[in-house]
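Reply to dn_fold:

You asked what the input looked like. This is it:
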Amino acid sequence: MKTLGLLINPIAGMGGSVGLKGTDGMYQEAVRRGAERKANARAAAALEALLPIRDELLVLCPSGEMGEDLARELGFQVKVVHTCGPETIARDTADAARAMESADLLLFAGGDGTARDIVAAVGDRKVALGIPAGVKIHSPVYAIRPEAAGQLALSWLKGACGQTREAEVVDIDEAAYREGRVNTSLYGYLQVPYERRFLQNSKAPSPLSERSQQVNIAWEMIGRMKPDVYYLVGPGSTTKTLMDVLELPDTLIGVDLICNKQLVQSDLCERDILERMEERETRLIITPTGGQGFLLGRGNQQLSPAVMRRIGKERLHVLATQEKLFRFHGSPLLVDTGDREVDELLSGYARVIIGYMEEQICPIGVGG
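and this is what came back:
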């Protein structure tokens, strides 16, 4: 019988839709703003891939929401290896990870903070794989979406995938991040089952040489703006350049709203966006994450399934430099909103503005 270590950070991702850019130290504020827990649903999407081998698998997990509840609900054989208190903390993650060292695979749901706790506990001694459930997911120890994590876990447990790679665990200073400063540190490495199509890349910054292209892209987008239409401007250096050209203050890692080339509102959360969309036609300006290629689902959870269902593909403007697209090596731009139906709605092809009066047709896919 194979053993699977299952660990879920139940509050991972809660800060995203309410505009907090993370949940570390902000749980109570996220609750106050009406955030909902979604990590267990993300973990469930991954575990569904393991149902065909459910009777051959023993799941080692912490108690309650950190793994036990979901594993039992799905009918897996369960052994609780760590008992959590009423509110889970980072120490629960580390203690549970250490208690699972006999597992054939440690499957965990969370974000970069969760991966950081796990690598501190077990280092690179365990084969581990992340289910993306956090707000910021820069570490390449995560699959591109929950379903991909489940498929890769199944392949590893059945012996079809026998290769691992060392993948870095990075995390940012969330306090600085909320102020628009990105300070990233390396915390260690995890051994990850390796099948390229299932895993996300590490996030890469835009080199300074791309600045002139970003300015040209900005002027092209400005020329396309319609009067009296709302434009949501997503996070990223390329979209920041648009705001710089317009001489408007921006939230580098948030979502801002402009109309007639003037700032209407800064740093909107999901609820703000949905309320504003009732006022007039709303479009979205967005850029893929460098190195990873995600349009949605990494650091911009304010752009929720409810928002994107109303935006649709026809009111989506994608901006990217040629260098950024080249580094994706022809792979599709990715969407992972948490709603498969919405992801499918957005998939297909998109016109990407790559310069002044220049476009490139790029595929958009769901991955996994």
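The chain has a mean pLDDT of 90.
Hope that clears it up.
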